[in-house]
Amino acid sequence: MNRSEYIESRNSLINDFETKFSFDDNQPLNGQFNMVSASLSNFIPEIHCSSHKDIYKKILLHKKLSILEQSSYQILDFIEVENFDDEIIGLLKTKPTIICTFHTGSYRVINLLLAKYKIPFTLVIGKDITEKEGELFSSLFNDLPGNVDGNNLKIINAENAKAGVQMLRELKQGKTLVLYIDGNSGAGTTTTENENNCSVNFLHQQIFARKGISFLAHVSNVPILTVASYRKSWDEIRLRFFDPIYPDKSKDREKFAIETTQRIYDLIAPIIRSYPEQWEGWLYIHKVANIVNSKIQSFNSNHSLIPTEKISFNSQLFGIFKLHNIPFLLKKNTYSFYEVDGKLYDLLTGCIEHPVRRECFENNVFHQLYEQGVLVYL
Length: 378
What we know:
- It is a single chain.
- By secondary structure, the protein is an alpha/beta fold.
- It folds into 2 domains: 3-290, no CATH class; 310-377.
- The chain has helices at 3-19, 27-43, 52-68, 86-94, 109-116, 127-142, 163-172, 212-220, 253-274, 342-353, 363-372; strands at residues 79-82, 98-101, 121-125, 154-157, 176-180, 197-202, 205-210, 224-233, 236-241, 289-290, 310-313, 318-323, 326-331, 336-339, 356-357, 375-377.
- A 7-stranded mixed beta sheet has the order 1-9-8-2-5-3-4, with helices on both faces. Strands 6-7-10 form a 3-stranded antiparallel beta sheet.
- A hairpin with a 2-residue loop joins strand 6 and strand 7 (205-210).
- It is globular and about 75 Å long.
- The protein starts with a helix and ends with a strand.
């Protein structure tokens, strides 16, 4: 794919998402949107719920673009690299390093940059991604003009029981590892109870994050290089390199792993706050969320109970969707959802866009929903 072909494909994707893409009648996507909206309300409550749909659509768009942009060396013409100085280039060329990155922006272009600078590396990704796209990753990499002496790209399944041993072996052989600390939608081992996780502060809440990367760095005595991709514009993809984090051998390994994992998330948080539509992690962060600030800002204006005033569904605190034609009401601050009957579903969805008068609801139903915060006066 040459430059003009890329621009044409990119612009076509952008146009399709802006003018044609709708998920209102797609139950699985609408359900996913509601979970994303809940996470946005929990982690960045200052973003009003009226912006959530546009953010969700752009998350899916950026995911598509990241796949498109992994396939051509010409994409490097659109990349602006930050803090990629001689010291960091020298580190990557002379010492094994753990590159710790996130599913932000065009997150796959890191592979192209490493190939351009002839830096040998091994990619560590989840089982599902390995099975679905592993061969594609390898074939694309092997065809790059900057490929290191025609070597094949090695991929390690992050969920394999022997993954830790395999990663240590690669580091001892002088290879750099590229790992995604924020997991992905196919990483089934990402759970709140996984012993490889630790609780870290992230934006307005906490999450259970993978501490294994920091643990591995301490064991192997290699630095961690945090890298984040984001877009300043459609024609400008940024790759920001942060200062290397070197293992502190005087520190207890567990303590170092937890503190360093927190430090890594502190580095990425401002980028995700500034460009929330560019982080794929919103699609699955609910799996590892640790809600410590349960109060979400609401637009309830505390009006008195006047039957002639109009009421609306409180989309900042609640979501509503169907899965397999079964209607559910979602409480966003706990990610808990409850089945509701079809008549109530129609009433609630109807007053999202078009507020209704109080008398549209039965008296006891209205009072229950109003007390719970599902309905608000405008």
